[in-house]
Structure formats: C-alpha cells, structure tokens
C-alpha cells in the first residue's frame, strides 16, 4: 500500500452526461437513492447518484461545546484503563483489580460514548482475569453467548446506523458487474462466504438486470450463501426470489447451512464447470486465522539436500488456496482494517481501544437520524462487546476476532495464488460519492482508493476502518 495516497479523494469527474435509453431508480435507504442509466451510444451502464445531501444524514453542531469539564474525566478514564491493562500484562492482578474498581465507580454502560467504551473494555479485562478459572466463569455464566436472533438484529441495526458495510457492499457489486460485463457463460455463480447483508444482493440484482446486453443475452444468476441459521437462509431465499421475479432475472438459490468455521472444504459450495464464478467474503476470513496446522513442504529438499521442515498455515490460508484452484473470475474480500492479531497483549489492547472508540463515536452520532438509542445500545451490547471480549480476554485458539490489516491480507492472498484485480475508476468514484452523501457536511465517512485501484479503504474521520480488495487468479 502507498501511505501517501491515503486520504486523497478522486478529483476527476465521475461520469460525463450521456444520452439515456433506460433508467431505473434504486433506493439505498436513509434518503439516499440513485438512477441506473444506460447509454444509447455504446451500451455502457452508469449508476448515477444525485449530488444532494441525504435528509437523514447526521449533522454536527456548528460550534463545539466547551470541553474543559468533560475532557479531563475522559482522559483520566482512558489512563486508568491503560494502567489496568499494563498491570494485568505484568501479572499484577491485585493492582488491576483496584484500577477496575475505580473505573466502575466512574464509568457506566449508559453514559457518554467514552464511558460506555471504557466500561466495555473494563468488562473484557475483568473477564481476562477470571478466564483461567473456567469453573468460576461457568458458575457466573460469563460471558454469556448472545442469542442468535439478538445478534442478527444487532448486525442489521449496525448496517443501518453505520454505513461501512453498505459502502463495502456497493463497491463489491460494482466490481462484480465490471468483472462479468463481457462474460457469456450461461450462469453467473456468486458465492457469499457469509457476512453480506441481503440488501447487497438486492442491489446486485438491479445492477445485473441493467447490465449491458442483459436484454439480448439470457444469463442465470446463481447465489450460494454460507450461513448457519435456517431462518436467515429461508427468509433471504424468499426475498431474493421475489425480487428476481420482479426484475425478470433467472435466479437459483443454493443455501449452505454451515458457519464459516465449519467450512472445511469447498465441496459444499457446489461449484460447477462452465460457470462464471465470483467469491465474496465479508468479515469472515479473519475468524479462520485462529486454527493452525502443519503443512508438508511443497519443495521436498533445500539446496543442501535436507528435507525442509513442515510449514505452519492457518485454515484461512488453506481455504484461500482451495478457492484459488476454482479459478474464480473475481474474489472480493472485505475485512476490518485493524491489527488485533498481535502477540503482544498491550499493543492489541491499545489498537482495539482506538478502533472500537471510533465505532462507539460513529454509533453515537447516528442517533436519532439513523436509529434509536435503544438500537445503538443493542449494537454495543450484542455485537461490539462480544468482539471486545474476544480480542481482550481470549488467547490462543479461543480468540477468533483476529483482525489484520490489508497489507497482511494481500500477502496471504498472493501466497494462495491470487493477484490483484484493479477496480475501475468508476467503482471507486461512485462509492466515494455515496460515502459523502451518507456523511453529509460532516464528512465523517469517506472512501479512498489506493494502490492504483487495487483496494479501497472506508474511513471514519481519519481512521481507516474497513478495506475492500478485489482479486483474480493468475
């Protein structure tokens, strides 16, 4: 990645006006909509977003409130939290206990964002202290697993209140259509490894129905979704089937009732010869980094004639290699742009505090424009808190939320046999326009293309939060 390019936004015009032959309106939600148009000159398609501000976009006060009264307690809380983490890392549990007692007297889980953030991390530190005593944890029922319906509802609220994943899904859809514009296979097979919102596929249907040549070339869209919940799979199948019928799209749905952790081979994906294959992974691959196993060396001897030692690889790397063997037309990977997989606990703790601090602030500013305070609390309790607990309290194979930065994912993808697939300037620019519309005047959300269009980063203010990258096989 070229760090000098971060933060730059495209200055070139997105699309020049062209005569239109067809037009289709698409609603992104929250007052943001656009029109799908096709030129009668060359048949190319463009998704035009009006240059107006979303009525539902949150606003910030024109003049900041005095901070002298609030800033010092907030800084004090953060320093206390860091001190507790450092004490715990040094094995000084009694000192950490005293710090946590002070934090609990100052921070609540229903106060300001910094109070709720600190309370969540204090919860995770306390869990880290008692984690070795599994009997204590079980007797206290700590931590309790979030019920699947509550977790699913929290994910839906998060998608509405913070548009990170909506922007990622939009970029993915543009990249998919760009990649298959000239494809003449009778069947386009999109494999969702999990994590994508059904709304992303509804938008893809609109793109697919209005792609160049759609009226003259019949092509079936087959969608495979990996998910462990029957209710989600059945409701998604019904929703997409209805939309496909409305748009006159040939559609096939293939559910794979598995969690990503249980996807031990690619056979359940039922990929067939003659398909144009696209693979999409949204916040899934990092959960496979916890499982490591020995792999026989591909080169049996080194230059001295000795057999090489077995290499260690993760299940994420193994799955990527298997997917590369399928020669997909495109693979789109969306992951958290964060370093929460380090060995050093204090570094991991500090990185997580900054990252989730940005998410807590984003959620706070989304109320009431995009959701209620109750929905915000549900997201923090049922979605973010379990992730914070996992990153802070768990070690070894127990820790599943092993977020890595784009530079690390790029190395894994290339080792598996993938090379970068460049996104078109239109994909990057249109996604950046949508981000500006959703953010309004605050510019709280923005999209920046990097490395010659090989990936995009979705920012919250100046903090990169998510990366979207596109890949193809050699």
From TrEMBL:
Belongs to the GRAS family. Coiled coil: none annotated. Residues 393-472 are annotated as: SAW. It comes from the Eukaryota. It comes from Triticum turgidum subsp. durum. Keywords: Transcription, Transcription regulation. Residues 235-267 are annotated as: Leucine repeat II (LRII). This is DELLA protein. A motif (LXXLL motif) lies at residues 285-289. A motif (VHIID) lies at residues 188-192. Pfam families: GRAS.
